[in-house]
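Dear support,

We are seeing what looks like truncated structure output for some complexes. This example has two components. We would appreciate it if you could run it in full and send us the complete token output so we can diff it against ours.
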Amino acid sequence: MRVNRMLPLATTAMAIALAGIASAQDIAREDTVIFDLDRTIQDPENFNWMTDGTGIRRMHGAHQTMWEPLFILNYGTGNLDPWLATGFEANADSTEFTISLREGVTWSDGEAFNADDVVFSAEMALSNEELTAREVATLRAQVASVEKVDDLTVRFTLNAANPRFVVENFGVRIFGSFLVMPEHIWSQAENPATFTFNPPIGTGPYTFTSAASNRAIWDRNEDWWGAKTGFQDLPDPLRVVFLESGGEESRAQLIATNQMDAAQSVSVGTFEAIGFQNDAVMAWHSDYPFAAADPCARQMEINTTIAPWDSAEMRQAINLIIDRSQIVNIAVEGATTASQTMFVEYGSMTPFVDAVVEAGYGLSPSADAAAGQALIEAQGWTRNGDYYEKDGETLDVAIHVNSASVEYTRTIDVIVEQLQRAGIDARSVPVENSVFWGEVLPFGNYEMTYSWLSCGSVNEPWTSMGRYTVSDVVPVGERSPGFNNTARWDGPEAEAYSAIVDQMEGMPLGDPAIPGMVAEAYGHLSAGMPFIPLVQSAKLIPFNTTYWNGWPSNDNYYNHPFHWWNTTHQIIHNLSKAE
Amino acid sequence: MADQNAAAPETAAPDVSGLTKAQIKRMKRFDNPWRNPKLIWGVGLLLSIVALGILGRIFWDTEMVFTGSGLPRQAPVGIENMRGQMGSWAHPLGTDVTGKDILALLIVGAPNSLYVGVLASLIGMSIGIFLGFSAGFIGGRVDDVIRVGSDVMITIPPLLILVVFQAAYGDISLTIMAMLIACFVWQSPTRLIRAQVLSMRESGYVQMARLSGASTGHIMFREMLPNLVPYLFGSFIANVTTSIVTAVGLEVLGLGPQRVPTLGRVIYDAINSGALIQNLWWWWGIPTILLAVMFIGLLLINLGLDEVSNPRLRRL
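Here is the complete output from our reference environment:
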């Protein structure tokens, strides 16, 4: 419910939470780093991340402080930085991967972390359909078997060739990675799908202290394996807190008054206002547009099974009516750019974006409402007053939107106006974050919605394109595997697309044939239009340097600044006390 | 004494030389209870909001309530915003962060907020009048059922139920919102009217009507109801206030209609977009003032009506 977005409530909750932190144990503010959480911790007693589609059982600090990934993809260098693993080898056709684990890693209860844990966790994922987190579903879809070679070596055998296997599953490419769970605890669980893993343990430099619906507290483990083996020094902060700020206004106030060190994304105007009050607050760039490029470009998801949007022409009409530059200017205040394709426009993606644009499938930043209306009229709709009608029915559409951020609601407000002006009775239906990710999206309970489900590719095209193949189509009411093809796009066009994309799947990265295949597949995608790419995403994340230095930025690019990701281990290790 | 009594108040002007100012004022109070300054001010304030809605629609482009109608974050005329841009007559009260014109939002939004309150209260009062009369006049089982029903309903906090309902159903229209609120404002009129009817039932004229064979409906609505009019009117106005507070409460939480501007919705958008820290005071401040005007108007009407129906309150 959006009750918790209400400022007074949030502020009161915050005051109580902060008071709680102060009294829990005597750790000074200057030894504590406080991160912002953009959502409520629905079930603070449950640490089973494998059954959570929303990510909240990890992003409240668990996968930033307690659970470590095997590798971390470095957005700056493009390399996989080794973490719990030291490296991997693939066979010639990319169907077998052998991962070497780091020596000396221990769980916080003293047990050794080794190949048994990895094999156990992977086998649990393979044999349990009820474990529905995206990372679990992805691993389950790709892996045929997993075996222990020795205590520090694990071999994965895949169903099909996949040169991206390690980065995709264990490299924190987007948000999370497949997290290895301790065998000695999880093997005691009767059913992994109902196991709550409380109290949780991990290998990270922090251990769980307490959690409530609006905050989670993690304290430094002085006995961390990494410091003993010389992998990394103990991080400086004694305590890490994740606190739900409850909206743009309160997060701005908190960071401006030094009660928070890292906020969630804010709008350009709000960031400027924070700057007026507190010059210790910084962002990725020191000047306009301040924001860092997020790898998940925004799009309209369309449920292709619901009339009249089951017609590709109608979906194309919507695409023509949408004015992307207006979204950029109004909803995002100029902090981003219009998308040309489904892909994120990182330098590493240029060959594929260019191939699509050269083939004539690039998207226009401006609208051609007349062409869109012509398509609608060709489908037998006639305009009667404000709206189109056919057989006495008005052309309407309900657009579900996650109410967790003004970026989402504002973008949909802009699109609703554009569709209204073109004669479609569009309306936005705001829903709470967990309902959006838990009920609306995976089960296809929507006509259209705003999200970023083609997200995935950052240096190759397959990961994003592979999310819309026909093999992932399930009926409405059933859960889309790993949020793939929630559009339920099917039919000859989709099959032609899938054939090319499936062929691409096993090809080595950098194969010169790939851009051509991308363009060919994109022709089918463009004709079918199961979703409408909108704009690139930019995240303006304010960091406060009053207590802590070493935040990531364009000038200090050790990795990206998304502190709700599994990569945040690197940020916390880079922090140093401000003098 | 006899002379003074003979003179009608309108013609008594020459005779006041011997009276103090306070006494003259006191005399005038008898003129016409409806010419009550509180009542007049209250009605005036409410009418000004209605007038804003009507005149605004004639003289201003209300299409500007939609996203992207002008430059974002413009301050009111003659005032600079944080980026140093001067407010212009294109948007006399400024714009919000998505370029919606604040004046247009007020022109459409303020009467909408009033509309929800009046409609909800009308429905609630109608239910209340019907049930209150039935309970008080018919008595017996009917009375028991209605009394227990309204007593139970009065303990349920309306906002709680409405928040859950609207969160589940998302976008709803103003009229449906008013009807939902009406479900929670019929209890107190029911109880009050029941109490009045119980005492009135035994009065002479009702007994007389009964003896003359008038039907229950006739006695209830033709004989008794007119005597309750000032009372009902006061209750109605109090209910309008409650309904508006409830509606604004829902809107400020982001519930209620999404695309129809209301004052509560404007405030919700402002809070949600960081208007306080960005010092966009015109965005949340002006609608708040309008809401205050509306509530003060309703309060004055209520006080005025009390004085009209209860001469003792006129401090005579």
